[in-house]
């Protein structure tokens, strides 16, 4: 994704936050208009308040933890009999 596309997404997310706070005052209506969930809206607002515009950039959706190396390759083998 190019820098221009990232900047466009940040502007779009900022517009949604401003719409909810300054214009409508209604989070649910704003989320319906922008086709985002309220949970997403609250997450973006919290990140924006904490980090500024940098908080509106894409961030990883990878899990915060990973399985231990030993558990990744483990499989259960059965011979089909009980």
TrEMBL record:
Domain Insertion element IS150 protein InsJ-like helix-turn-helix: 12-58
Listed Pfam families: HTH_28
Lineage top rank: taxon: Bacteria
Entry protein name: Insertion element IS150 protein InsJ-like helix-turn-helix domain-containing protein
Organism field: Streptomyces lannensis
């Amino acid at each position: 994704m190019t820098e221009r596309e990232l900047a466009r997404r940040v502007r779009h997310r900022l517009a949604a936050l401003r719409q909810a706070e300054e214009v409508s005052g209604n989070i649910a209506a704003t989320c319906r208009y922008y086709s985002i969930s309220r949970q997403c809206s609250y997450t973006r607002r919290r990140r924006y308040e904490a980090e500024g515009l940098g908080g509106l950039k894409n961030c990883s959706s990878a899990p915060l933890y990973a399985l231990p190396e030993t558990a990744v390759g483990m499989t259960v083998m059965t011979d089909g009999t009980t």
